[in-house]
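Suppose you are handed a protein chain with no further information: no name, no annotation, nothing but its sequence. What can you learn? This example shows the usual starting point.
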Amino acid sequence: MDILTSATDWARAELVSTPFFILFGILFILAGVGFSQFGLTAMARAYIIPTFVAGGLLTIIGLGLFFTNKARIPQFETAYEADASAFVTAEIERAEGTLKEYQNVVFTAIPIIIAVCAILLLFMTTPTWRASLITTIAMLVVILLIDGTAHARIDAYHKQLVEAQSTK
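A reasonable first move is to predict its three-dimensional structure. Written in structure tokens, the prediction is:
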């Protein structure tokens, strides 16, 4: 198994996945435009700012991840050619750190925040609060879905790295 190919394939798969953050960000922004142009009720108008904020955040996340992973691809080859063993060790450490972050943030904190928002939704009656909570839930669900697939990819990549390290 060529670990450099695995690393490059993982990074390229991330380049395909991260634009979904941008796509959903644009969709949230378009929803905000729609609410601003066609919102007739107080509830519809209350969605304008939250959807713009959520769209901006998702777009920023997507762009940041895209350019980070795009820059990482050429660095893989350089690091691998310099010292293959050190490259594998460094990638294992990075992948393990990322997996821990996913566990803590994506699979623990985000569901808790979604639950808190859902509970608060029962008690908040003003349109601004309700729109903000619903938009927050929607944005976090998008993050959870996209990061769920990213977690599966990095977990598989981590297993390949561990296998490569144990065969040397």
